[in-house]
Amino acid sequence: MELYHIGKQCATPDCHQLDFLPFNCHTCKKSYCLDHKDFQHHISCSRPTAAAPLPCPKCSNPVNGTSPYQTKEYSESMIQAHIDNGCQTPEQEAKQRKMVVHGGAFVITSVASIDGDCDLNQKRGKTMPVYDLQIVLTWKGTDSSGAHASGQISIPEFMHDSEMAHIEMVIAVDDKKQQTAVRKGVIDALIPAVKEVLASFKWDMVAENTKPAEKNSPTPASSDKKENPTSPSTVPPHQAPKMDPVWIGTPTSATLKVKTASFGLETQFACTASDIYDSFLNPERVKIWTRDKGVVLDPRPGQELILFGGNVSGRIFELVPCSKIVYTWRLKSWPPSLQSSLVTLLIDEFDKVVRVRVKHVDAPVDEIAVIKRNWEAYYFTPIRESLHILATIPKVTAVVASKPLVNAEEYERISKSAKTTAHDLNESHDSKEPMSFWFAVLYIFLFC
User: Fold this and answer.
1) Alpha carbon distance 396, 392 (integer Å)
2) How confident is the model at residue 130 (pLDDT cuts 50, 70, 90)?
3) pTM of this prediction?
4) CA distances, 268 to each of 79, 172, 345, 372, 380 (Å)
5) Are 108 and 138 in contact, with CB atoms under 8 Å apart?
6) What are residue 21's phi and psi, to 5 degrees?
7) Domain 261-447 belongs to what architecture?
8) N or C: which end of the chain has fewer CB within 10 A?
9) Residue 55: DSSP 8-state
10) What is residue 326's predicted lDDT score, i.e. its pLDDT?
11) Per-position DSSP letters for 151-209, written without gaps between them
């Protein structure tokens, strides 16, 4: 039963809803319902609809939905909600709403974590995204009996060249008793929706990172640019837009200087030295623990190696059977001006355990923390978990080191790095190491 003598009707022409607690506009003196209380719905209001939104006191960006003509309480609540949401722009808020994937009785509630590398490269005038991410999503929903369920979806490897059909997604259910009842529903409802969002990630990444650069670029289009179209525009330091540093294009060593440093790692494996030595050099074994069928590896000095779909490349420099492996190492995302790192693996066998020490020379300082994590996540842990499978694959014949087949400039740099780090690498080695050290000195003296 409606009581027409109580409350007021909404002034919106297509609404006229009777509201017992109407919202009164201070400008047009009319009443509106809850759905039409915002000023953009006031068709008959004489207020200027183009009034600028109020700025956020924290980030100074305009807050969507606020206006000088709104009530003070309403504007303050909108600003507070904007701050609680991380001071996101309207475009970011819309993107976040799009990322909340619904699938029937299940929904992705949040992104628990994102880890890995993400860069933009420019090749032949085209901006190419390069990324290798590990993503963890949280979900919730109801099973067939109506009971509430929740869990996580882990994506251990999401790369720029990954095919959506081959992306691995691990589904975890918080309550193990609901594993059977919920798992199929999550696969049918959420997995296709998540893949649909991930399929547009690379293009969204390019759009989000190139538009601000074009918008904030202080270099106008002029006739000077036509005279030398191949030279990149220069930006004065005081006019440079505030953007996260990314390597774009092919800068020279004169324009881009990256500070490098060295670091060391140590781990242990429950196997023999020959098992570990072969696991790093046997192509069939490497394909298993890298999960990369396109591995390029010839276990001979001077030969090229390509791992993880081309994201890691290098050239073998020195091999001492079951004891030492030296090779160059670089990421695909590094600019050409950045020289390759030098990686040395020292293998020591003890009673029922093998110690592997890694010396990583000339790594970018800003990426050392990430590279350390990736050594554990992409090398040590997969090998350790795959030892029982690797043991079934016949070992390759160990090759004694000879003069590397590399160009003179790269060989000279590697030899110099080997000289400067030889003492550190052999300081904690066993009694056989001093002989290996003098052998290396004699080797460098004869062939360099």
Assistant:
1) 13
2) confident
3) 0.38
4) 54, 29, 12, 16, 9
5) yes
6) -130, 70
7) 2-Layer Sandwich (3.30)
8) N
9) B
10) 93
11) EEEEEEEEETT--GGG---EEEESSGGGHHHHHHHHHHHHHHHHHHHHHTHHHHHHHHH
